[in-house]
Amino acid sequence: MILQLFSSKKDKRIMARILRNVSWVFSSQVVTSLCGLISMAAAARALGAENLAIVALVEAYMRLAALFVHLEPWQAVMRFGSEALERGDKRRFRTLIGFSTVVDVVLGLMAAILAFGLAGLVAPWLNLEKHLALLQIASLALAVSLRPTGIAMLRLFDCFDKLAKLDAVTAIVRALSSVLVAVFGGGPEAFVMIIVIFSVSDGALAYILGRRMMAIQLAPDCADNPLQAIRDNPGLLRVFVNSNSAVLLRQTTQRLDVIILATIVSPTAVGFYHVAKRSALAGLRLGRPLAQAIYPELARFAASSDEGRLTRFTFGLSGAFFVLLVVVVTPVLIWIEPLIVFVFTDTYRGAALVVGIQICASAVLLVGVTVVPTLLSIDRDVSLVVLRLSVTVLFFAAFWPMTLQFGAAGAAATHLLSNLVWLVAAGFILRAALACQVTRAT
């Protein structure tokens, strides 16, 4: 299946485009991941495990509020924007971007207001009464969040290089800021402010760059009322709701786990778990370029009813990624404890097991990195939501007893178990869906 990715001249051109885009985003994610580890190491060394837990909980609260309220339109925009561009329908495309912008603005404001209002109620539960102001400041940052629309525009216009450079520069500046704060003895407040500032600037800059690229690549044309996008794109709201529901369910397990864990284990264990999650997140960021680069291509295959190429690229790229993960992850697991001590100091030696389990959990997700974009491209978003809901129920059913029994390691193992179940089930659903597509075409 991997060799079939280069079976024709057209496939070779598509692979060349995908590899070019992947190389840009991958390079950016390498820089972003390394800078993220530098930022985490600076905070860990400056704060210690208990104060690091304060920063972790504030960030988790901020992200959780955005997750539940600010539904992101970028996947729906990618799905229908690719179709509009393929047909040369500029007015439809501009109207779709207008709809996406309105969604980002309105839901961003709603997230900020709700999070700010609930901060006083949540703070005592998280033992953050003395840090209520940090929760409120982080909440207000949610009001400016236009990145989903920005990245959709940049990816649809094949501007992966520009988005990659923007993300890399932002990450470098953030890492330098974290190091400076650590050098000058900054506390949790300073590190939370770094999170807030770069959260706002990251989204605003991506949107501005996306609008500029749209102005360059599309001749001036009028756009209809943003609500017209709903009529122009049948199924837009369904894909918007279902794609976000799937993300919401997945992210719920990744956001609520820290908060629930804080009520069961010690602050030091929460700090260890936060280090483990951030280390695993660095690995996930290295795998996202493939999903980001291939989604537009998969949407084009689906729009042109090219089921054969859709199948080859979905399973071929997943197979190639599996081989790469085995080569990369194995030595990391072998040397996990020395790496933890080197990066985070000997204080975090006890986090080695938790970090190793989280890395394995992330690797399982990365093997299925093409599954979600393929299911969305062939309008199997309902199946995706049902599967994600089932896995989420399994996760929370196992999380509490596993954590009570094994602490932070049990929490990490629950992620690994649920990810394995998701991967196997998603593989069966995808094969059946693609077979149905081929049968229908013939």
What's the gist of this structure?
The two termini are about 20 Å apart.
Give structural notes.
The protein has about 450 residues and is mainly α. About 85% of the residues lie in helices and about 0% in strands. The chain has 16 helices and no strands. Helix 1 crosses helix 6 (about 160-185) and helix 2 packs antiparallel against helix 3 (about 90-125). It is globular, with a radius of gyration of 22 Å. The mean pLDDT is about 85.
Which key phrases capture this entry?
442 residues; mainly alpha
**How is the main sheet built?**
none
| Helical fraction | over 70%
The backbone outline, from C-alpha atoms, is globular
Mean pLDDT: 84
The residue ranges in which pLDDT falls below 50 over 5 or more consecutive positions are none
Strand/helix succession: HHHHHHHHHHHHHHHH
Percent in strands: under 5%
How large, in whole angstroms, is the Cα Rg?
22 Å
Structural class: mainly alpha
Question: Could you tell me the number of beta strands?
Answer: 0
How far apart the termini lie comes to 22 Å
Give the helix tally: 16
